[in-house]
Amino acid sequence: MNEHLRNALSLAASGVPALPLRAGKVPFGNCPACTKNACSGRPNMKTPGPCTCPRACHGWAAATTDPTVINSPAWRQTWRDAAAVAYHPGGAGLTVVDLDSAEAIAWARANLPATRTVPTTRGEHWIYQGTMPSSNAVRPGVDIKSLMQYARWLGPGSGTMAALPDAVHALAVKPSPARRAPQTLTAPLAGGQGECRHRTPAYLERGIAMAEQRISEARSAIHTTVYRTFLAVLSTHGRCGCLTENHVARLFTAAQAKGESPRHCTDAWTNARTTLGV
Q: Where are the alpha helices (DSSP H) in the chain?
């Protein structure tokens, strides 16, 4: 039994869903049977666990606490090829504040309550008890890893774990450079009537709900579907100032449920804005 498999079994025994990482700290790619979410095991990736193939093939959603799966013949080669072990913080009821620089660590020490810390290659992981949506680049050098995200296992760390504070929740709702525009988009009022028709709650709600449905029902070409949906939303609502951070978060959540990473969502949103010039 190699070290990675041993660590994964130890994590699983403590209730922490584990998964293997290949070189570059990224999950193993989809196996041929599950390319483009073709398998029926976890097509929407809303809950952690292996798909029906079964292999470690769906990123964070492959994380499991089932020792029979982790030590199964289908996974043994994966563990032999693995470069590291990761875990799904949200699946363990945890949130990791990933601090990637000395400046980020100094900011955390001045603004966040002390909690369990784990040294990383470039900084520290601060681990809190509680879950929230994951979000990258909430401020320079700071990512949040919790639901629908994985973090590299680097040891148990030190210190007493604190409850997830409001200060960390607040990080995810503050505008970041890549996502500030939806809150500040402006344009002349439609028809000169003094009120933008897109601000009508029912009109906007219907548009966002239809966009969520389009992404959720996609069975292939997920990247393209997400981009085109973002493009459609921005072409209709992107110039009137009606979109809020909550609307954008709903679209990102729908995309991440189909397997898109937070970074891919941000890239697709930024590219759609660039295409439309908004």
A: 3-13, 67-70, 73-81, 102-111, 166-173, 181-184, 201-216, 222-237, 245-257, 262-276
